[in-house]
Design a protein that fits this description.
By secondary structure, the chain is mostly helical. It is built from 9 helices and 2 strands; from the N terminus they run H-H-H-H-H-H-E-E-H-H-H. Strands 1-2 form a two-stranded antiparallel ribbon. Strand 1 (136-137) and strand 2 (143-144) form a beta hairpin. Helix 1 runs parallel beside helix 3 and helix 7 runs parallel beside helix 9. The longest helix is centred in the last third of the chain and has 48 residues, at 181-228.
């Protein structure tokens, strides 16, 4: 923007707000559209347009603009994924993990998250410690769900073998969003793996008990044979 643009922008916003207050939604829309043609991406102008469209019953236009906003946010946030790659190649594992986590937090449903999660898992193996974020607490010391606690985060816990942590996280997600189909599906998979682990543990215990019993039986047989001789 030029040096005079801030004053011009203030004038535009004042006029647009006046139109909205007076119910002149078509005029407010036209003002916002003209401004966005000159200065694409202006947040306040986009809000004016969405306000006008909502009042005009044009929710389709609102959703169209919000999809554009989602695309803009995704493109801007890709810098975190790229910085993660740069830090990873530079041997800065913890910094790379921080950038990757930031990208996932901003884009919890992005297709790229699976690839980023795999990179996080590799980093965890490389540094030999848990690089996942610690549980956050509020002023009273109670655990709270962070913005990064997503299904993708649970998938990462699962990949690292932290089944109990994955189960707890998914239950917290579903407590806030019971209709989250991805979380429901992931929780079912985690419970299956937990049950499978319990069954294997039970089987190993039974086998150990059987071996102990067999060892005692053989010892008794050997003792009986020794007495017979």
């Amino acid at each position: 923007m030029s040096n005079s643009a801030p004053k011009e922008r203030d004038a535009f916003l004042a006029r647009a707000e006046a139109c909205l207050d007076q119910g002149l939604y078509q005029m407010a829309q036209d003002l916002a559209r003209d401004w966005l043609n000159r200065f694409p991406g202006d947040t306040e102008a986009m809000i004016v347009a969405c306000h006008a469209w909502t009042r005009m019953g044009r929710l389709d236009r609102v959703m169209e603009m919000l999809r554009e906003v989602d695309t803009m946010l995704f493109e801007l946030s890709r810098i975190y994924a790229r910085m993660g790659d740069i830090c990873q190649r530079s041997g800065m594992s913890r910094e790379a993990a921080t950038f990757y986590r930031k990208f996932i937090a901003l884009n919890p449903d992005a297709p790229l998250n699976r690839e980023i999660s795999e990179k996080l898992a590799e980093l965890a193996d490389t540094v030999g410690e848990n690089i996942l974020p610690a549980e956050e607490t509020d002023a009273d010391g109670q655990e709270v769900v962070s913005g990064f606690q997503t299904v993708t985060m649970a998938e990462l816990y699962l990949k690292q073998g932290h089944l109990d942590m994955a189960e707890n996280l998914l239950q917290e997600i579903l407590a806030k969003d019971p209709g989250n189909a991805a979380a429901v599906s992931a929780l079912e998979r985690v419970k299956f793996l937990l049950n499978d682990r319990k069954e294997k543990t039970r089987s190993l215990r039974q086998r150990a008990a059987l071996m102990d019993e067999l060892a005692r039986w053989l010892k008794n047989v050997d003792r009986t044979g020794s007495h017979a001789r």
